[in-house]
Amino acid sequence: MPLYKTITIDQDTKVLIWKIEESFEQLSEGINLTEHCQNRVNRMKSDIHKRGFMSVRHLLAKVGYTDHDLFYDDFGKPHLKDGMQISITHSFEFSGIIISTKEIGIDIEKQRDKIKKIAHKFITTEVPFVESQKEEDKVRILTVIWGAKESLYKLYATAGLSFEQHVHIDAFDLNVPFTIGSIKYKDVLSHYDISYLEFEGFTCVYALPYAS
After folding, report:
1. What is the C-alpha to C-alpha distance for residues 173 and 60, in angstroms, rounded to an integer?
2. Is 83 exposed, middle or buried (0-12, 13-18, 19+ CB in 10 A)?
């Protein structure tokens, strides 16, 4: 089974990435879903979504959990019953999880030119930084920013939070795989460490509370 990458951030925090090469039937072998999650899979029309969903259950197994250890709150944020924090992502042929004692978020995105067409929907304070970069780097840069904001959105999990209005990503160098993100929501400002890695035309970004 293709566990693609494992990143141990600290003794309490780990990222696991799966490359989805198996069929849905292969990924279903040995996986026992809750009734709720089985119903979710049954409603999915896209094969890649089904395979992504099942690959996440294999990632859970790699760190000693099953689907029955997972539940979702009213916001749709996943939780583990033992109190550990978890965030989940999948995009095309890759899926990923991050598990920690801390609040965390993760996102995987495919690097695609169309992100330049929708950039105005998720960047504001980042515009001068993006516009100052080489044209050939803008897709990669925008994908990091989008992934960082998506990760923070998952971490914060609060209704009304806006990528454009409330979440800011500091300028960064593509040769240095980390930056700082911040959320200012209802006059409360919080900062986060953002890390990212690129592989096979994809970008994985994950966020943790800022360690000063």
Report:
1. 32
2. exposed
Q: Which regions in the chain score pLDDT beneath 70?
A: 1, 212
Task: State whether residue 19 is helix, strand or coil.
Answer: strand
Phi, psi dihedrals of residue 29, rounded to the nearest 5°: -65, 125
Q: What is the pLDDT of residues 1-39, one digit of tens each?
A: 589 999 999 999 999 999 999 999 999 999 999 998 999
User: How open is the CA angle 172-174-177, to the nearest 5 degrees?
Assistant: 80
The fold for domain 107-209 equals Ribosomal Protein L22; Chain A (3.90.470)
DSSP states along 146-158: HHHHHHHHHHH--
CATH level 3 topology of 3-102 = Ribosomal Protein L22; Chain A (3.90.470)
Question: Which token pair is 56?
Answer: 């996440």
